[in-house]
Amino acid sequence: MEPKAPPHAAGTGPADTPSDVALPAGEAAIAVATQAAVGLPRPGPRELTLVLGGARSGKSHYAEQLATDHAVATGGPVTYIATAREDPDDTDEEMQLRIALHRARRPADWNLVEEPLRLADALYAHARRDGCILVDCMTVWLNNLIFLDKRPYPEHGVITPPPAFTEEMDALLAALPTLPGHVILVSNEIGFGVVPMGAITRFYVDELGRLNQKLAAAADRVRLLVAGLPVAIKGPDPAW
Question: Which active-site residues does the annotation give?
Fold first, then answer.
């Protein structure tokens, strides 16, 4: 399936939370470097979990159950960050159905944030030391960045994504070690298939694989969902 260009959407800016003050991506990266230089502990998340899986593998359901278990055990809030935003002008009935199914499955008391592009800002704004953030999914987010300005891509040759592609990727990777609370990221594992024919699809598959590697390196826990069953790739099960 060819990656699909998303509808244009404005990002949300960072904001202070009751328990922590958010920093812009650049300032956060400087703060982390300064803390490391003087020997102070990094303020990283108590938990960072990456949930991988193919289509219909059960990855979203598993991630939602993790978030529910965290809320039950700690009493903290859950914020669901959806990277797919419903567009009333979109005629893709399949995508609309998927969004509706995800919405119906989520508990009513979860806080919903729709952020298709500026994911680091959304994480800074909503991370809490006593809370849990579930991001579903990184696959759609990457697609949104590639097609941000709806530029045409060649069938062959070098793919040059918009500047925001690298900027938002760097901002996310800088943000993750600084966030309080439990963060759960959902992403697709699509590297098991054949090499795609089109240049843009190959670029997409390659970049998602690289992103997953970086997220897995930063994560405390990685689970691969196969036929609805979680396979432990990295880290122990949650203690809560």
Answer: 102
